[in-house]
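Can't paste images in this forum, so I'm doing it all in text. The chain is below; anyone willing to post the predicted structure tokens underneath?
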Amino acid sequence: MSSTPFSPPAAALPTDKELVLKVIPMPADTNSNGDIFGGWVMAQVDLAGSVLPARYVQGRMATVAVNEFIFKQPVRVGDILSFFASVTRVGNTSVTVDVEVYAERIRMQGQYVKVTQARLTYVAIDDEGRPRALPKQQVEC
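Text version of the structure:
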């Protein structure tokens, strides 16, 4: 009997979110297990998550909360990661975004596995770093 590594079912890419980032993790981004370090993935999610709020904020912003972050599957060296985002809430000073990350495994081109999902909130800030109101004119996303 041969041992086959667990392979999660292929996932369909979301059609209700916007592709905001694609990146390939490299060996320097690994943890002691040889998988991609979770902190590296978190940093990429933060970058991807900031793309859509930038359209609303129109200036400086800061990540004010990581409301949810779930690692569903490991990320491996050579995976092609696709980051999809959608705005879920627009407040007076903040924008909340959902981000989903899908891996296209190097040996399984054309098949995707959902590896991470997160919800982050960004706040518009002024030159002194204080929260400021979002501009009145909103951009359709």
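The chain has a mean pLDDT of 91. The first helix runs from residue 38 to 49.
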